[in-house]
Amino acid sequence: MAATLPRYAVFGNPIAHSKSPQIHRQFALQEKVRIEYERILAEPGAFAEAAERFFAEGGLGANVTVPFKTDAYDWVSEHSERAEAAGAVNTIIPLGGGRFRGDNTDGVGLVSDITEAQETALKNRRILILGAGGAVRGVVPVLLQQQPADITIANRTETKARELAERFGVRSAPLNGLPAGRFDIIINGTSGGLGGEIPAVAPEVFGICELAYDMVYGAAAQAFLDYARRSGAKKTADGLGMLVGQAAFSYRLWRGFSPDIKPVIRYMKEAV
Ligand code: ATR
């Protein structure tokens, strides 16, 4: 009988579209090992049950995506500092004895993509983040660690931007009152792109923008990135590199091996 391979999984709903199995397969090739990485569809409200089953059957680590990141946060026994700050868990590490640690690698995934793959420094830069939902809350603490000059959060619902900005000690501003030509890096963290919608930001806001970045990838990022380029952004990038980056940090937490993200981003770009 063949030996059982180390088993990992990503939980979500929907999950059929997830690129994580392909990405982790590339990491395993780099490490020269064989692993199994599957997609698990959990029903709303049934994350805990699905996770318990997976780990009882010998699972060695899991990723968690929409809509279960806060369920995962509640389910684990302990949190990393960055998961605590985000209030969300995207990586579960079994500790033994029925205990589990929850981490969040979304922020470091974003930062590693911007600084390594996009070769854009964050230190001393003025950063604008559009959106104030779960995706943004997950990355602000890690962006702050890069010592930007400042971070401004702008959101369609202004009160949410204000609340988040207060929580992290950064600035907030109304979407339609953003200053022209002030921001070096503009990150779209809204979910409107899935329906082809972009946040209502004046073109002048992109005046000196060196990098416009969308946290989603593929077609969902297209409208925002096209608008940013037309408005003067020098460079644009979708969130494929962030996806690979967060996966790489998860892989390292489970296996102690640090994958090189650049060749995997290139590989995934061709595959998408
Ligand atoms: P996620 O976990 O993906 O961040 P979320 O918590 O539902 O999802 O947050 C979605 C974010 O996208 C919010 O900031 C939302 O703005 P509101 O707080 O005003 O709802 C933003 N968003 C969604 N559709 C948008 C659109 N068409 N234009 C501008 N912002 C939009």
From TrEMBL:
GO molecular function terms noted in the UniProt entry: NADP binding; shikimate 3-dehydrogenase (NADP+) activity
Entries under InterPro entries matching the protein: Aminoacid_DH-like_N_sf (IPR046346), NAD(P)-bd_dom_sf (IPR036291), SDH_C (IPR041121), Shikimate_DH (IPR011342), Shikimate_DH-bd_N (IPR013708), Shikimate_DH_fam (IPR022893), Shikm_DH/Glu-tRNA_Rdtase (IPR006151)
Any Pfam family matching the protein: SDH_C
Binding site for shikimate: S18, K19, S20, T65, N90, D106, Y217, Q246
Catalysed conversion reaction: shikimate + NADP(+) = 3-dehydroshikimate + NADPH + H(+)
Residue stretches making up the Quinate/shikimate 5-dehydrogenase/glutamyl-tRNA reductase domain: 119-191
Highest taxon of source: Bacteria
Cellular compartments per GO CC: cytosol
Domain Shikimate dehydrogenase substrate binding N-terminal: 10-92
Protein name listed in UniProt: Shikimate dehydrogenase (NADP(+))
Protein source organism: Neisseria dentiae
